[in-house]
Write a structure and sequence with these properties.
Strand order of the largest sheet: 3-2-4-11-10-6-7
CATH superfamily: Immunoglobulins
Oligomer: single chain
Order of helices and strands: HEEEEEEEEEEE
Number of strands: 11
CATH class: Mainly Beta
CATH topology: Immunoglobulin-like
Largest sheet: 7 strands, mixed
Length: about 160
């Protein structure tokens, strides 16, 4: 009886496919044609810290009434996070770095369950207003980045 049910299921799938316009086959590419190179950089969004909020040790406390993002005590208890997307590559294939201004930073770690990148701990000792920059490089070498102005106050050395 299970063969009869699977036969009915296959017949229903063929009927649905024909009603939906039939089964399509991708046309073969013309001989001698070449694929275009990937020149589109990844698009980055910083998820944490959020613009205009105050953080302590990575924990979001409250919106800053003055508008500036403030992070004190590094990203110890909760990591910073960003999302990166590309027209061709899967996020797991990116190399993502996080910097304060142009100083040496840290490599963000890919988290597959939510397609984000996180960094934890210190980005280095600092006090003042910096550009927090997240940069992603895809497998074709295209680089995309975004930045967020933050007041950063940390007395801890960089994470290793």
């Amino acid at each position: 009886m299970s063969h009869r049910i699977s036969g009915y299921a296959a017949a229903v799938m063929v009927m649905v496919a024909s009603l939906a316009g039939g089964l399509a086959v991708a046309p073969a590419s013309a001989e001698g044609s070449t694929e275009t190179d990937d020149t589109t950089p990844p698009q980055i969004t910083i998820l944490s810290p959020r613009e205009g909020y105050v953080y302590f040790a990575g924990i979001e406390l409250f919106p800053n009434p003055f508008g500036l993002t403030m992070t004190m005590g590094a990203f110890l208890f909760r990591p910073g996070a960003a999302m990166a997307v590309d027209n061709i590559d899967h996020p797991s294939e990116f190399h993502v770095t996080v910097l304060l201004d142009d100083r040496a930073g840290t490599t963000a770690t890919y988290v597959p369950c939510d397609n984000t990148f996180i960094w934890q701990g210190s980005l280095g000792i600092g006090f003042g207003i910096y550009n927090l920059t997240v940069t992603a490089r895809d497998t074709s070498g295209n680089t995309g980045s975004t930045h967020l102005r933050v007041f950063y106050d940390c007395i801890l050395p960089p994470s290793s």
